[in-house]
Amino acid sequence: MNRIQTTFDRLQQAKRKALIPFITAGDPSQQMTVPLMHALVEGGADILELGVPFSDPMADGPTIQRASERALKNGMSLRGTLEIVAEFRKTNPQTPVVLMGYGNPIEAMGWETFARRCAEVGVDGALTVDFPPEESHEAFEHLQRHDIAPIFLLAPTTTEVRIAQVAKLARGYVYYVSLKGVTGAGNLDLSAVEQKLPQLRKHIRLPIGVGFGIRDAETAQAIAALCDGVVIGSRIVQEIESSEAGQVLDNIRKLTKEMRAAIDRA
Amino acid sequence: MSYSYPDEQGHFGPYGGIYMAETLIPAVEELRQQYLRFRDDPDFKAEFAYELKHYVGRPSPIYHAKRLSDSLGGAQIYLKREDLNHTGAHKINNAIGQALLAKRMGKKRVIAETGAGMHGVATATVAARFGMECIVYMGAEDVQRQAPNVFRMKLLGAKVVPVESGSRTLKDACNEAIRDWVANVESTFYIFGTAAGPHPYPMMVRDFQCVIGEESKVQMVDMVGRQPDAVIACVGGGSNAIGIFHPYIDVQDVRLIGVEAGGHGVASGRHAAPLTANAKVGVLHGNKVYLMQDENGQIIETHSISAGLDYPGVGPEHCLLKDIHRAEYVAINDDEAIAAFDALCRNEGIIPALESSHALAHAMKIAPTMGKDKVLLVNLSGRGDKDMNTVAKIKGITL
């Protein structure tokens, strides 16, 4: 059984919500990514979203843009990201890892190679920001063949017809974008999220994670009360960016613990 | 063979599509529906035609560059004078079309990306004309090299936002405009400047620019009694080129030649010529196209003297026209473009945009190999006033 499903089943039995942090592979350095992934798990993360850096991250705000630029400068690539997952799996066989990024690096590698490599190294899902369901037929076929969950985004602007379409294709979980804007934006509207979720639940049986713009423990707690998982990206990446080299693992562990505690209060 | 692209999902063969983040998918879908609704609406068409005639000054003339042609000793070069349009380039045709659509959709705020600044100026112009708020994203590098256009946009009431990320050129301006759109999707109409991006933009921009080719077909018969042997246009994203090519696609004997920016030379790798260089197909800014990228699928920096051509991708319809061999694509290097720029200034008293100088340079290259009875039609897509700083710098002159 897929690690994502196992994780959500376990959480559901314990009546807990998933904490899903995001970091960019290769930020702040190639060597730090695996230790950071372990630190996130130690801090209480349930699923890891690992960003594949891209030269033109159109859906990202300044924080994740800078992480992407640092990672590329450090020589990170899709191939390198897959190797990082392989390394992580040597000591962590159970925590699900989802790759998140843009389609072109995968197009360049080829979807079949990508999906096969994902399966080999122990990636559980793939979220391709700029590949909506309409353009994902080829991707979907290869991911399915290798049992990699295609994770789709839904947005405040998504119509009910599209929600139903995504419900048919999605595996693992569905990622609801909590605001109209880029990652890390400051305009999260809790009541708008609360209003949209019943419409999503009508069609989607999978767990629903919510992310974009969750910057503090209080918001994380409020969001956790509404859904099955909380995705925290820019806030974590910002912590990595602002930490002294020797402190980054401790700081990330501490921040993750704070978020974990907040979510568990929900 | 009947040519009818794109399909309903916006695909030109394997190219095009709607590769966008979910938040914007409903926006492009709404745009598609509204465009299809108004495209054939008599009132919309009448208003568009009125604006093109009385505001833009269409039809733009075709001019026989006789002294230039005589100096080359071969084919006769004719210029489609888009440089004579209001605001000085073909960009205004599309900006008006999209602004009229924005008006009907009740959008009061428009955004645009710009490279050379001509699309930014055109958008700022129509925003002033129709009373809309206007924000233009422009790479910080381009803000410097196209300073006169930045000032023009500000005079017209637009806010110009310099983009400091990435290569600080056109592609980064596109990224930033998309980020704005995703955050302001309900209030904002994105006036996209070229025949690329997610469906319906490649189709819609083409349709608005086709007035160039449609006029040319009539004007050439009036002037020389037949259609030209070849139509030549520069290609960055490719909107002026598709505008003049598209009406000629079914006219079998007319060669269509797209001229990309060769920069320091295609072999050097420092260029902006994805079609000529046979770049790998990839996905950027909403569509699948020939795209300049490294082996890891990261977009690479492009090089061109011309900010308007300095872009790693190209419109999806040009990708298809290349594959089906209906159009040919070549590259002209920076120095060849400058030589053509000088030649047109001195022989005809016309200062062309550096973008258009690429098309002209190719015409000047092939004209001497052709008989004097042959006819080349060059789309002179814009005027060169904006390029004074760039050209002066190249010539070692401080203005």
**Helix and strand sequence of chain A:** HEHEHHEHHEHEEHEHEHEHH
User: On the 0-100 scale, what is the average pLDDT of chain A?
Assistant: 96
Task: Identify the overall geometry of chain B.
Answer: globular
Query: Would you report the number of β strands of chain A?
Result: 9
β-strand percent of chain B reads 15-25%
Low-confidence sequence ranges of chain B: none
Biggest sheet character of chain B: 6 strands, mixed
Class of secondary structure makeup of chain A = alpha/beta
Described by strand count, sense and barrel closure, the largest sheet of chain A is: 9 strands, parallel
At the fourth level of CATH, the homologous superfamily of chain A is Aldolase class I
Query: Which class of secondary structure composition applies to the elements of chain B?
Result: alpha/beta
Strand content of chain A: 5-15%
Into which percent range does the helicity of residues of chain B fall? 40-55%
Strand order of the largest sheet of chain A: 5-4-3-2-1-9-8-7-6
Radius of gyration of chain A: 17 Å
Polypeptide structure, described:
The complex is a heterodimer of chains A (266) and B (399). Chain A is 50% helix and 14% strand. Chain A is of the alpha/beta class. Chain A has a single domain (3-265), classed as TIM Barrel, CATH 3.20.20.70. Chain A is globular. In chain B, the strands form three sheets. In chain B, strands 3-4-14-9-10-13 form a six-stranded mixed beta sheet, with helices on both faces. Chain B has a four-stranded antiparallel beta sheet with strand order 1-2-12-11. Chain B has a four-stranded parallel beta sheet with strand order 7-6-5-8, sandwiched between helices. With 399 residues, chain B is an alpha/beta fold. Helix content of chain B is 42%, strand content 18%. In chain B, strand 11 and strand 12 form a beta hairpin. The N and C termini of chain B lie far apart (54 Å). In chain B, helix 2 (42-56) crosses helix 4 and helix 5 (118-130) runs parallel beside helix 7. The A-B interface holds A 54-59, 61, 65, 69, 72, 77-79, 102-109, 129-132, 134-135, 152-159, 162, 177, 180-182, 185, 187 and B 9, 17-27, 165-166, 171-172, 174-175, 178-179, 182-186, 280-286, 288, 291, 293, 295-300.
